[in-house]
Amino acid sequence: MNPNWDDMRIFLAVAREESLSSAGRILKIDPATVGRRIARLEANLDALLFTKSQQGYVLTAAGERLLDHGLQAEEAMRAAAGAVAGSTKSLSGQIRIGAPDGSANYLLPQVCAKISDANPDLDIQILALPRIINLSRREADMALTVSAPTAGKLLVKKVSDYKLHMVATHEYLERHDPIRSLSDLKGHRLIGYIPDMIFDRELDYLNDIGIDRVALASNSVSVQLRQVSLGTGVCVAHDFTLPFHPNLRKILTDQVSLTRSFYLVRHQGDQRNERLNRFANALTQGIRDEVARLEADADA
Predict the structure, then answer these.
(1) What is the Rg, in whole angstroms, of the alpha carbon atoms belonging to the chain?
(2) 3-state SS, residue 39
(3) Quick one: pLDDT band at residue 136, thresholds 50, 70, 90?
(4) What angle do CA 13, 69, 47 make, to 5 degrees?
């Protein structure tokens, strides 16, 4: 017997969550029922799809093969739903965006609020993670990234450049030795990412300017900015975050001025999904406008 879509939907949830309870919570189905449905699917296919380990439910080789077909079926269902939903004037349903916490905290809230105002039946979810979002397992419908992926069946679109500078509070600068050049930074406390948790080379700002020690570190941009706002040291900050931290001022602007880029990454199979296309276009333009507005405010 061939699996139906409901079987496949349950299989995909367990494959992603690697847990019957987590899959059941997402599907709003009792975990025992999820387990029975997986067992029935395995019996119908005469194949073991998962093995139980300390890490949870792990796909077997047969499960991995079925996963590829399941994802294709899911994309087809989403494309069909998107074609219908996209034909209406406003967007509806649920869309999840994955993003690094800097953009998730300082750009996406206001951008998504405007999109929500224009589409009151649309539910927008922002998944803020200090790592690369796994689109192949549908952690999100699309992701904002700081580098363009080169592997996988993905649609990649450059969204916007953004600028970064070194910053500190006025009070910190008054209490400590002057910072007139990069060499002066050796006498100051640097704040930045945890070195071995930098998930993208584009985020290794301090290494790019020759700094090899981070006295106060976090994998979160928001934590770093909170630390520097308390007057505890110096860090590299996105210009678009500075209007939210008015006590920070740029330093060494003639010696340290970094430019990075945002990219919007989507499943290749969604390229005909009119609903997601419309949302992606609105998101892209919204981010461009918001980066430009906030950077202008930072220079004011």
Answers:
(1) 23
(2) helix
(3) low
(4) 75
